[in-house]
Amino acid sequence: MLFYLLNIHSKSVSILQSWKNKTIFNDTKQCRIVLRERSGRLGNRLFMFASAYGLSLKYSCQLYIDRNIIDELQQTFKINLTNLLSKSQLNSFTSITKIQNHCLYISNLLYSNNSYSIELLGFWQVHKYFIDHMEQIREQLRFKQSILDRAKNFLEKNINTNVSTSVGIHIRRGDFLRVRRVSSNKYIFNAMSHFQIKYHSVIFVIVSDDKEYCRKTFGEKKNVLVTPDSFSAADDLATLTLCEHTILTAGTFGWWGAFLSHNRLGDVLTDSKSDHTPLDANCQQDDYFPSWFKFLNNTN
């Protein structure tokens, strides 16, 4: 099997930019989307899954997703994709073009009348690859009932929805303290103030990979809850989706909490400060954030 590797980082950015006005191939048969790589954590993997599925829908391509990826996501979601290509079918392809992409949007990456196989590498953190098929994405990413029940029980036990408005907050720390950045506490407190001004009674529900820190920093307030240590990442994500509004910090986990929110009319506030790392050099805010995500500026 012959492979081609196209990488968006550093020197190869210009190569991808040149695709904006031309196709990759000129054949006239079925296109195929391939996803075998599992990178990052849950938020990153959801972007990879959604982009692969979204591109296959947009361009009527056949889709191959590695069984390990499906099995892992099915531990959390009710994924029920049909007509996926099999591994034996994948192995029969004579060539696969590998495209490594972190956050760059290429508007005409694929055409449905072309005969080629494209494998997605990298995180593909661009909502434009799947936003036109948002309902199909949300349908595949419905939480398993046991996970939803845990999240609902926690919220119902702690929040009187007839009196208070729930606002979910995702606070990413962990490895971001070393390799990227974390959103400032000032931004988080200002975002909380935004909702306290807007609504009479607000309960903030924090999910985080550093819950001890969150309890010490924010938990002294009577209207702040931190999810239990026993909650898995899936439990935390489901809890975010059940809140009426969302405050995002750095990281993709909260992004998906807002995107999959049960409240389609909820406010989503996000930190506009960029990461300023080489990995994000070519990221565009409107490629990553949907139009209903709003920036809380001048807080850092």
What would you note in describing this structure?
The protein has 300 residues and is an alpha/beta fold. It folds into two domains: 2-140, no CATH class; 145-295, 3-Layer(aba) Sandwich (Rossmann fold). Helices cover 34% and strands 18% of the residues. It contains twelve helices and eleven strands. The chain has helices at 13-17, 42-58, 67-73, 87-91, 134-140, 145-158, 176-179, 185-198, 211-217, 233-242, 252-259, 285-288; strands at residues 2-7, 31-35, 62-65, 95-100, 116-121, 165-171, 202-208, 224-226, 245-247, 268-270, 293-295. The strands form two sheets. It has a six-stranded parallel sheet, with helices on both faces. The protein has a five-stranded parallel sheet with strand order 1-4-5-2-3. It is elongated. The N and C termini lie far apart (50 Å).
SSE order and pairing:
Elements: E1 2-7, H1 13-17, E2 31-35, H2 42-58, E3 62-65, H3 67-73, H4 87-91, E4 95-100, E5 116-121, H5 134-140, H6 145-158, E6 165-171, H7 176-179, H8 185-198, E7 202-208, H9 211-217, E8 224-226, H10 233-242, E9 245-247, H11 252-259, E10 268-270, H12 285-288, E11 293-295
Parallel strand pairs: 1-4, 2-3, 2-5, 4-5, 6-7, 6-9, 7-8, 9-10, 10-11
Helix pairs in contact: 2-11, 6-10, 10-11
Shape by Cα distribution: elongated
- Count of separate DSSP helical elements: 12
Name the structural class: alpha/beta
Which regions have little confidence, pLDDT < 50, spanning 5+ residues? 1-28
Measured by DSSP, the beta-strand proportion falls in 15-25%
- Any idea what the CATH architecture of the largest domain is? 3-Layer(aba) Sandwich
- Distance between the terminal alpha carbons, to the nearest Å? 50 Å
Strand order of the largest sheet: 8-7-6-9-10-11
Please describe the biggest sheet, giving its number of strands, its sense, and whether it closes into a barrel.
Answer: 6 strands, parallel
Question: In the CATH hierarchy, what is the class of the largest domain?
Answer: Alpha Beta
